[in-house]
């Protein structure tokens, strides 16, 4: 168990998150190729989960083998004629019209566009904290070696009082913390319905001019559940926002090429994807507001 915990805290979460996200993206991409290829009447010899070498053949349905492979990074589709051979075979990829071949090729990217819309829409129907503030401040991250970490605060704690002063929002909490520079203060929290008390000493962290206890905090909001039509609109809007962010990222990289920093941007791109994925999975990367 200590070895597992050590792995997770030393970059394991980043690696596992990267593999999971990349695997899902590649799998959905290949699934798009597979579905449209079948629709076009192309003979698909194999649909693989993960990349070879092959671990096991799961089953065979019709002419297609469904296999499980050792490298857990998405999947692949093996079609007859995908490299231009078997042109005379009416069921090969090479023999199909330009329109069908284009449809098969575009299907992968289309599925990658549909996936975030679907996921955002699903989350919106399940419920998201998008309603009115509840008057409670929730801890969503703890900075290592901070007063909060040393005192024993955890993610999920709801901060109720700071020095006997009721806390109603993030701004008020930040203001209250500033008053207790290098002085002990009692913080009352609600942890899973149980009231708890912690004594800690706010101080400057990481050369920041602000006095902090080292927590990332958010104003709790009421859970809102969207109907299917509203959820789809929410999914489209969030996906569009992500697309804009991606375009801005590419513009930044291209701008770096002309500014003489493009080499660094290009080399760190894949590692940047991995790092960003890990940061989403770890609460420590949230900006610490108090």
Mind describing the biggest β-sheet? Answer: 6 strands, antiparallel
Rounded to the nearest angstrom, the distance between the terminal CA atoms is 33 Å
Alpha-carbon Rg, integer = 25 Å
Q: Could you say which overall geometry the principal axes of the C-alpha atoms support?
A: elongated
Q: Considering DSSP H and I runs of 4 or more, what fraction of the residues is helical? A: 40-55%
Beta-strand residue percentage = 25-35%
Order of helices and strands, N to C?
HEEHEHEEHEEEEEHH
Which spans have pLDDT < 50 for at least 5 consecutive residues?
A: 1-10, 263-287
pLDDT averaged residue by residue: 82
Structural class: alpha+beta
Q: How many domains is the backbone divided into?
A: 2
| Number of E strands | 10
Instruction: Provide a count of the helices.
Output: 6
